[in-house]
Amino acid sequence: MKLYGIRNCDTVKKARKWLDEQGISYEFHDFKKDGLDEVRDTISAHSAHAIMLENTSIIKRPVVEHENSVYVGFNANDWATLIN
After folding, report:
1. Residues in a beta bridge with 3
2. How do residues 11-70 score in pLDDT, each as one tens digit?
3. How far are the Cα atoms of 21, 45, 82 from residue 66, in angstroms, in the given order?
4. In the prediction, which pLDDT does 16 show?
5. pTM for the structure as a whole
6. What residues have CB less than 8 Å from 73, skipping those under 6 apart?
7. Is the pLDDT of residue 71 over 90?
8. What is the pLDDT of residue 22?
9. Are 63 and 71 in contact (CB under 8 A)?
10. What is the pLDDT of residue 49?
11. What's the pLDDT at 12?
């Protein structure tokens, strides 16, 4: 599982804490620290692609890649159903 976000974002902190409490391993990619080379090809608008690469703060977070799916935002109840 790969979790994308910004380390000091409150929602990302909640998501990481929840994953840790569930014993779910994940790789964390910090937009601010690690940058963002590509946006997934599910984003089709060229201008949105360029804007997100330039301004990673506008991306709703966290973003999670898990089992060929992408989830955006954090809700513990939803994640319990989707990830477990």
Report:
1. 28, 64
2. 999 999 999 999 999 999 998 888 876 665 555 556 666 777 777 777 778 888 888 888
3. 18, 23, 9
4. 94
5. 0.58
6. 11, 60, 61, 62
7. no
8. 93
9. yes
10. 67
11. 92
- Residues 13 and 7: their CA atoms lie apart, in Å, by 7
First to last CA, the chain: 12
**59 three-class SS:** coil
Q: Which CATH class is domain 2-83?
A: alpha beta
Of 13, 4, 5, which is closest to residue 66 (Cα–Cα)? 4
Scan for tokens 């910004």, then name that residue: 6
Token pair of 70 as six digits: 């992408």
The token duo for 73 is 């935002």
Domain boundaries, the chain: 2-83
The residues, ordered by sequence, that sit 6+ positions from 19 with a Cβ below 8 Å of its Cβ are: 1, 3, 26
Residue 22 neighbours by CB distance under 10 Å: 13
